Amino acid sequence: MTSYLEFEKPLAEIEGKAEELRALARQNDEMDVEDEAKALDKKAADLLVDLYKDMTPWRKCQVARHPDRPHCQDYIDALFDEFTPLAGDRNFADDLAVMGGLARLNGRPVMVIGHEKGNDTKSRIERNFGMARPEGYRKAIRLMEMADKFGLPIIALVDTQGAYPGKGAEERGQSEAIARCTEKCLQVKVPLISIIIGEGGSGGAVAFATGNRVAMLEHSVYSVISPEGCAAILWKNAEKMREAAEALRLTAQDLHSLGICDLIIKEPVGGAHRNAPDTIERIGKSIEAMLEDLDKKSGDELLSERRKKYIDLGSKGLAA
Predict the structure, then answer these.
(1) Rounded Cα gap, residues 1 and 209, in angstroms
(2) What is the pTM of this model?
(3) Is-contact 154 188, C-beta < 8 A?
(4) C-beta of residue 118 within 8 angstroms of C-beta of residue 156
(5) CB 267, CB 69: distance < 8 Å
(6) Strand duo 192-201 + 213-217: pairing
């Protein structure tokens, strides 16, 4: 069953009417409604194109958070073979909001790390809705160190509204863990590819997204804070999230123009949630292409290039 977003309500009505007609026809063999249903299908397809043609930043936020959007687990299951999950930070616990392990991409050994939000109530609670605690970032550091030791490319799949801000996480050094994870991204001498597959929220995303290449799905978002959080701070009113989304410049298109995003991966019409297999295939091809490009560089070149990329971003920001 399709979950419709707020701005998709007119589409829901049309597609609902088409389904009602077909349901009536299934109950009564003498009814011939196919022509009417096809006309409604055509109307719905045209409306879908119009709705997704020139989307506002706030609408992109809604699409990036869609519950049916493919998650980290979906990409791992579809793109990688022989995935062997590695658990725990060897210090405190295993954080299920962060999943990672060894895998093969077209026969090539790689290390995959990503945020997993879960896909139903039970798994979302277990995964803490993709909000990692310090042990999640320390697990990621451990896996990056292993990848660096054995010369394995790192593929990071980013999808989090931000690191978990709870009391326990702060007591266990949340900010330090995020900083160390970001630092580790800037130390490894293997290709590091980061892909924003949904939400890229705050330092919780930066800790995985400080890569040689940062790609974003067309309707994903990446920002220092959520629009609701920004609106609550600036205007003391979370309802001004639309204005905040505009000001934050959090879309893939904005970030590509600023040089933060290196590649925008197109989504099917209607968003990744309407055709997950196609979206996953596009990401797989993009990863292969980026790896092929990065394979031409030595470890020292990868490290130097990555550091320069982020130093230059900071310099541009100061100059602006």
Answers:
(1) 33
(2) 0.91
(3) yes
(4) no
(5) no
(6) parallel
| Residue 73 C-beta-side C-alpha neighbours within 13 Å | 13
pLDDT of 320 reads 46
Cα 160–181–187 angle (5° rounding)?
135
User: Which of 118, 194, 182 has the alpha carbon at shortest distance from 156?
Assistant: 194
Average pLDDT by consecutive 10-residue portion of the chain (320 residues)? Answer: 86 90 76 80 93 93 94 96 95 95 96 95 94 97 97 97 94 96 96 96 93 96 92 90 94 93 95 95 97 96 94 65
Tell me the backbone φ, ψ of residue 156, rounded to 5 degrees: -110, 125
